[in-house]
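name: query_chain
kind: protein
chains: 1
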Amino acid sequence: MKRICAALLVLLGVAGCAAGGHRWAARMDADPAWARIGVAAPLPVAGWLRGSARQLHVYIEGDGAAYATSSSPSLDPTPGVPAALLLALADPAPAVAYLGRPCQYVCAGECEPGWWTVRRFAPQAIQAQDALLTLAMETSGAERAVLFGYSGGGAVAALLSAERSDVAGLVTVAGNLDHALWTRLHGVTALSGSLNALDAAPRLGNVPQRHFVGERDAVVPEAVARSFCRALPQGTDVRIVVVPGLDHDGSAWAVRWPELLRELALPKSGR
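structure:
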């Protein structure tokens, strides 16, 4: 708890102007079961943590409100409907963490649109997520983590998994696991300055993986997950799960999440 409080005090110095203005942040801050965590460098990033256990379920948010229009970046990337947070709230595991992405739920001088548009997966962004994940692990007393990433959060989860030795499983939901293919499919600006999860795939052969794809998802179609999985080492414990009837709507995924969680063959959690 001391670590949480210390991190919160640091974060409030850069984030106070934003946190109270976000409905979901206000709801989480008011819930005594959840404690806010955050880091300020190399980029400000915030999240919430519930419980303690040897194994931590960590949910990583999607790209949020990256663009206000098809060509104009948003001034605030905080998602109106935080899909990964909805998934985290539906998870009954003893210890659950939710990690926002850089500059979501916060505001600071470092927060300029490049960090949630073309550089959304830049090394600095991944380093910030890694620092917040480490804080969540230390505070919860966890020895290992299962990372769950929604949409762009799936890319972050894969990149973190490739760099850490304490990841027991990687689960993505509508995950953007090959942003180069994704931008080509949609004919949009390439993510220059961003790392691509596809390039981390050869280092993920020892991490059990499940990649959920919505049957009707036109935003991040099944082809993106297939591209990533082809780059994994032979023999990787991996499965693509195509869920009938679902598209990219995070709220719909959250409704189905308790059922889908029960079907996962993940390492057992323990206190």
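note: Confidence is low (pLDDT under 50) at residues 1-21.
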